[in-house]
Amino acid sequence: MGKAKAGSARKPRGRSPAAASPAAAARPLRGKESSRVGKKPAAPRERPGEPPPPAPAFCPVDLGAQRERWVTFQERQSLTGEEAARLLLDTFEYRGLVKHTGGCHCGAIRFEVWASTDLHIFDCNCSICIKKQNRHFIVPASHFKLLKGADNITTYTFNTHRAQHTFCKTCGVQSFYTPRSNPDGYGIAPHCLDEGTVRSTIMEEINGKEWEKAVKEHKTIRSMSKP
């Protein structure tokens, strides 16, 4: 995504929206109209056999009285519009969470993950987890970011091939993986986190030898990978 100044409008693709009348453009916008440019004409009624009209394009956010403050913030922090928006969204979405960092033994793989300071860790006894002592906590995919080492990761799968057991090609350490129970998230090895951000841990044993039954009866494990 290219850089854009705060408050600047991106030209929508396809047809451009109809221009507002001079009277509509002159008056101040109120309520729901504040997020739109002028007042849009009523959508034409569909005739039998005709396809529905295309959905309206999203309009840029109206910063209103906060525009000057927003621009000043961007300039002081040397942020693009995208970077400032991401900072705001991260602050809201990750409220109450901290940024942990970690990686493998040799340092080829590094990542950051937003999670609580109090970690709920699963100790699974399925055929592979018991051999590699795969204790992990689960986070949504949007809370995880691989900082380096994408080209130094190899993956092992078996059985259903839904779980993606990823590990470092150099040192063999699995610092994170994609669990079968939560394919839309990541399982993070707490012992691969850097020191200083974990306050406490709670360990829960899960019967991976009867995986389907254990996951079906568990009340919260599926939701742990939801933002």
TrEMBL record:
Which terms are listed as keywords in the entry?
Metal-binding, Zinc
Q: Say yes or no: keyword GTP-binding present.
A: no
Q: Which residues form a coiled coil?
A: none
Question: From which organism does this entry originate?
Answer: Mauremys mutica
A GO molecular-function descriptor: carbon-sulfur lyase activity
Q: Where is this region: Disordered?
A: 1-59
Q: Which residues form the signal peptide?
A: none
- Family per similarity comment: Belongs to the Gfa family.
Task: List, as start-end ranges, the regions of compositional bias called Low complexity.
Answer: 15-28
The answer, when asked if Cytoplasm is one of the entry's keywords, is no
Q: PANTHER family from the xrefs?
A: CENP-V_GFA DOMAIN-CONTAINING PROTEIN, CENTROMERE PROTEIN V
The family database entries (InterPro entries) matched by this protein are listed as: CENP-V-like, CENP-V/GFA, Mss4-like_sf
Q: Where does the record place the CENP-V/GFA domain? A: 100-212
The protein depicted here goes by the name CENP-V/GFA domain-containing protein
